[in-house]
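Page 47, continued from p. 46.
Same chain as before, 164 aa.
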Amino acid sequence: MSTILNDIKNSFVSIIKGLKVTAVNWSVLRPCVTELYPEQKPQLPEAYRGMPTLPVRPETGRSDCIACGACARMCPEQIITVEVDKTDPKDRKPAKFTIDISRCMFCGLCMEVCPKGCLKPARTFELACLSREGMIYDLEKLNKLGGELPPLPEPDDEKSSSNK
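Result:
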């Protein structure tokens, strides 16, 4: 009989403790922590590292990639495919460059190992699509997603800045 009375007493105490937690956390003065995505896009931090992209140099109209394949060799998931365009031996460029973003773990090793620094992280995070094939980004899609690199400084600007 005493255990039943203790259980009834403990249930009322538990309800009061639960209401106290609700009252402490429910307040109009407390800041809202819910984001209204997709109506309001979240502010990405400066160090945000998205998927790798190949930005285009505006002077040449293509990326600085020399198709060395270092990114493909360094990728732990082996999702990068690079084939060299062999039409002009003096001008190395990729004939085919694909990344399967569905398997990318955004480690950034491909961007770190690139000798030309042409792989840059994207500032987008909305990568949803309707098929797995849509997650395979080719050279054109990577260039479009990467945007344009800032123009190279003029040679006169470098001399004047080094003299200062």
